[in-house]
Amino acid sequence: MTDGISPTRTRHQEALDVPEGEASALPLSAEDGLDRQTRVDLLKQERAIAAKYQGGPMWGYVVAAVGGFAVWLALFPLTMFGVVHPLVTLVVSTFLTVAGYVTCHEAMHDNIAKRGSKYRWANQLVGEVSLLPIAVPFSMGRVSHLEHHKHCNHPEKDPDYTDEAPNWWMAWYKTWWNRQPRVDGTINRYKTVCQQLNTREARIALKQTMVVQLIYLAVLFTMAWNGYAIAAVVCWWLPRQLGLSYIRYFLSWAPHHPREGQTERYAQANIFKSHVGHFLSMCMETHLIHHLHPGIPNHKTKAAYLEMKPILEKRGVDCSAI
């Protein structure tokens, strides 16, 4: 089982990789002096380094996704019947909710197994079970995330652009505000994107989103109706709210702020130092590497960045944080 790059990614990313079109990918004036041959040479070096970190066994993500989902499901009866304390359930369920997006993120890019691989079922399995704690189907997550890559930081076309905020505390506030019913943010923006795309995948994503969210509400209502309201809150409702805020902050706002005008290849994400560390920030400190080479698994992005750092600095990337 090795990582792979989805056909969608290949088409739009390769378009960005064409040397003749890289003038717009040099955001700093210091880069104006780079001639075409230098840019081509740097790109070759960058790709050679990236190739070293792509591939390799990905079974760890499968085990983490399936195991995490099993533990999450088990917390429902264990909490309902008093075996596990509600506070313990809240902490564990919230952690699993956030971790689920990390594993699903690899499946979105076909990094668990490429199309046509005999292990393709594992890629689908990871994607399907990982996002259920946030009540979003894999189909919706995949369609919207690939659109984010295709139109990163575009005010209208990037589904995640609504997470932009002037500072960190406003960013946390918007993770909540954007989930309100009539606000054009998060899932509402994702639904709009799917409606505009109107592809077969997008239509399936819309239908599956409706089904998953109806199941989510039905489970919460049924548990509360039968006297397990607290269990419903700590098993699913509150972990989903906390998990979504955590994911939106570290995956969307922190590595992309400020978004305005940052659409060039080497400016789509920042290199930053997280106050909670690399692991707890979902490895997003070096998120630029993911945008440059989505085929590099999440746990390898920092190592790839450190080796690629001299090249990125020559391309005008601010690498002073790490």
Protein topology:
Layout lengths: L6 H11 L18 H18 L5 H22 L5 H23 L11 H11 L7 H13 L17 H10 L9 H11 L2 H26 L3 H28 L20 H4 L6 H6 L8 H14 L8
Helix pairs in contact: 2-13, 3-4, 3-5, 3-10, 4-5, 4-6, 4-10, 6-8, 6-9, 7-10, 8-9, 9-10
Molecular structure report:
- With 322 residues, this protein is mostly helical.
- The chain has one domain.
- The protein is built from 13 helices and no strands.
- Helix 2 packs antiparallel against helix 13, helix 6 crosses helix 8 and helix 7 packs across helix 10.
- The longest helix is centred in the C-terminal third of the chain and has 28 residues.
- The two termini are 31 Å apart.
- The N terminus is likely disordered.
Overview features:
322 residues, mainly alpha, disordered N terminus
Short note summarizing the structure:
This protein is mainly alpha-helical and 322 residues long.
Helical fraction equals 55-70%
| Number of domains as seen in the coordinates | 1
Which class do the helix and strand fractions yield?
Answer: mainly alpha
H/E element string?
HHHHHHHHHHHHH
Q: Can you summarize the main beta sheet?
A: none
Helix count?
13
Shape: globular
In terms of DSSP E residues, the strand content is: under 5%
Question: Taking Cα atoms only, what radius of gyration do you get, to the nearest Å?
Answer: 20 Å
User: Termini separation (Å)?
Assistant: 31 Å
**How would you state the average pLDDT, rounded?**
90
According to DSSP, the number of beta strands is 0
Runs with pLDDT <50, length 5+?
Answer: 2-32
